[in-house]
Structure formats: structure tokens, C-alpha cells
Amino acid sequence: MDKSRVAELVSRFGAKRILVIGDLMLDEFLWGKVSRISPEAPVPVVEVVKEEFFPGGAANVARNLAEFSAEVGLLGVTGTCRHADFLKKLLIAENVRIDAVQSHECYRTIVKTRVIARNQHVVRIDRETKMRLQPEHAAVALAQLESMLPTLDAVIIEDYGKGVLDQEFTSNICRLVRGAGKILAADPNPHNPLDWKQVTVIKPNRAEAFASAGLTFSEPSDDPLQDTDLLNVGKVLMEKWDTENLLITLGEQGVLLFRDGESPYHAPTRAREVFDVSGAGDTMIALFTLALCAGAAPAEAAEIANHASGIVVGKLGTATVRPAELLASFE
Q1: What values do phi and psi take at 308, rounded to 5?
Q2: Cα–Cα 20 to 30 A to 63, which of 78, 122, 288, 308?
Q3: 3-state SS of the chain: helix, strand, coil percent to 5?
Q4: pLDDT per residue over 185-213, tens digit each?
Q5: Which residues are the active-site residues?
């Protein structure tokens, strides 16, 4: 893809308005060093030297978008704890609008703590309680969405399977967004099987795609375009979800894009070195959607999103990509 074309599209990103809906989290990273084994158990003793916090889950998708656009909003729920307050402060600092974030005592703010030593992921600690969105809070959220839709270019539904997105709530979101003629992107979770219909793009990874199609997982072939099982999964999901675009992320093999009425398009990985895959899928759905909003063809959007994800996996922690980095990757 020509760099001048990428620059043209990226120059339009700043004016695009996107709302992200889904499970909100706070990502905590404890960075340390290991010099001995614990005398209490055969485990390493990590001496913490640095602590960092980042918006996670759907909030990380919004954070990725905010690197390119000044008009990014978030819709979801948190608890009323210090972690919720901290998450909101982080989002405000990164220019993400939180007007549609509800905080109630009946929810627990999800916190994921990762312990990193010598650039190795030692352990992850999850503090969460699966929380179904209460009907009265869903009604408020839908009213907020409806009021915002006239000014939006796209909506991204990010499902981490934590309970916020049930079928009724998701169907109502899809009905409102598609009824308004806006771009609608979804990042599904096979542990929360939802009936997706008439979505602009759906982005599962390979394992999620096989699970969602109800087919037995198979190891990848060398060439995704000759991977019979994967191609069959794509065909099944295109029919099942009735989507315009199906973007399956393939890790070290890049991404495979299925489009209605066209041959599959493969964009090979652009990662030069992989340090941490945390949040790579968030970057993928964020940049693919943003590129579509800017007028990119689906294959162009796949290339841009693939380059962005390749940059992110080369960074440690829940990272984002900046416009200059994205443009440089096309040189």
C-alpha cells in the first residue's frame, strides 16, 4: 500500500467521531526483577521496581482511537471504587469522553494485574465479577447512544465476555446504529455467543472464529489462502452473521479478510519483533474501523490495521500506536 495513500487517509482520522461500547477494565502492570527463588515455594520472588496503569478492555480500544482522533467516546459501566475513579482519570487524560460511562455500586470494576520480570510475563491476577447490565442502566445507555448517533461516524462493540453485552442490549445497539446508517464494528467473544446481524465488520481471532462457527479447531496451514478449514470457517461465519466484512486475526500470519461477493484478502504480519500481544486485537479493530470511516476500502483498512497491530506487539504492556509510527511503517 502506497505511503501517500496512507497519509491521505490518516489525515482524515482526526475529524472522525467514534463511540466504543463494552466491558471496561483497568490494566495494572507490575514491573520487577527476579534474583532468587522463594524459600516458601518453588516460585520466583519478584522485586517490584515500577507500577503502571492503563485503560483496558473496551477502554483500550478507545485509547487506541484517541491517538488519532479527538472525538472518541466510551459507553459502559464501572463500580464506585477507587479503581473506577482511577480509570476515569486515565481516560480523561487521554482525551476519551466518559459522559456515557455509568458508575453504580452493584458493579465491580474489573482490574487485571500483570507481573512482568526480565521482560517475561510471570503471572496475571484478575479481580472481577461477571456483571449483567441491569435493565434500568441498559435503558439509560441506549438513550445516550440514540442522542449521540447523529454526530457519530461509527460505533465499535467490544465484548470481553464480562456480562455487559447480552443479546437484548446488543440487538438494540445494532438496530439503532444500523438504522442511523453508521459504520458498526464488533469484536465478539465465543464465550458469550450473540446473534450478530448486518454488522459492517466483525473481528474474531482464529480460535474465536472456529469456536463461533461451531467447528473443531485446526492448526494453521503455511498459506492462509490455501487453508481449507479456515476458508470454510470464514464462509460459515459470513452466512451466520450476515456481515459485510469478516476480519480474522491470525497472529504471526497477519489477518485474513472476507468480503461479501469477493475473494478473501490476506495481509501478512508486519511485526518485526514480538514482545507482548496484549491489546493487539484492540488496536486492530480500532484502526480498521477508523480507516473505514476515512474512506478506505476494506482491504486498505486491513493493511492499515495490520501495520498498527504489528507496531503494538513490539512494545511491552498495553500499548498504542502513534500516527508517525504508523506512517513510518509503510516506508
Answers
A1: -60, -45
A2: 122
A3: 40, 30, 35
A4: 999 998 898 999 889 999 999 999 999 99
A5: 282
